[in-house]
Write a structure and sequence with these properties.
The protein has four helices and two strands; from the N terminus they run E-H-H-E-H-H. By secondary structure, it is mostly helical.
Length: about 120
């Protein structure tokens, strides 16, 4: 396997180690966020879980947190096993991500200090 494909613009190449590291960290953060969400909503979830129709959905939230944590460990482990000189042009994949803060984290670049709202961004209210 070629470490870097010669016909692509090398400015957009990122090491596969860095890509897998960013993905693993993102899965980890999502798992942590899901666990925090469960803790915050636990009184309401306990009430909802009493309804047999909703019980499976409440359990699914816990399963989601567990799966995200497992995916994080898997992706981080795979990334650490890859040769350090393997790189890929990730720009096309990044262009499909409309959440700019996620895009910056996956690129491994700092977010701009002054940023306007971009299409697809989450706006908290």
């Amino acid at each position: 396997m070629n470490a870097v494909r010669g016909c692509e613009d090398e400015r957009h190449h990122a090491s596969l180690n860095a890509i897998f590291e960013a993905l693993g960290e993102e899965f980890h953060e999502l798992g942590r966020f899901t666990e925090q969400f469960q803790t915050t909503l636990s009184p309401a979830l306990l009430q909802v879980a009493k309804d047999a129709a909703c019980h499976r959905d409440v359990q699914s939230l816990d399963l989601l947190a567990q799966r995200l944590t497992a995916l994080s460990k898997y992706v981080l482990t795979i990334g650490r096993l890859l040769p350090e000189d393997w790189a890929v042009n990730s720009q096309h994949a990044l262009n499909n991500i409309t959440l700019s803060d996620l895009q910056y984290r996956l690129k491994g670049t700092p977010e701009p200090q002054e940023k306007g709202h971009q299409s697809g961004e989450l706006e908290l209210f």
